[in-house]
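Appendix B, example 12.
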Amino acid sequence: MYQAPGQTEATPSAKGSVIPCPEWANRRASEQATRAAQARQTSGRRRFVDPTTCERDYSQAELEFMLAMNEYKHKSGRMFPTWSEVLEVLRNLGYEKIPAASAAD
């Protein structure tokens, strides 16, 4: 592994986590990021509903779909599901395509 002059490697701790070397750690930035994350969690500014969709009353079906997608994203660990995965969530909710009436009718 390349090591810049004057830098020391990170050392593994007894518990298996890596302790960053002091020259790479920016304690002030880490503390600021931690405070910001805690403030976001306690503030309520960040909502489940995407702010770009406007504040409005959602129908029961819309809420059910949004909750199902959110649950899928948490379980799968994928922030941006593919269209196939969205279709899978819809099918699991019970949605299915109704066959088109034939032209002979």
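Residues 10-46 form one domain. The first strand starts at residue 11 and ends at 12.
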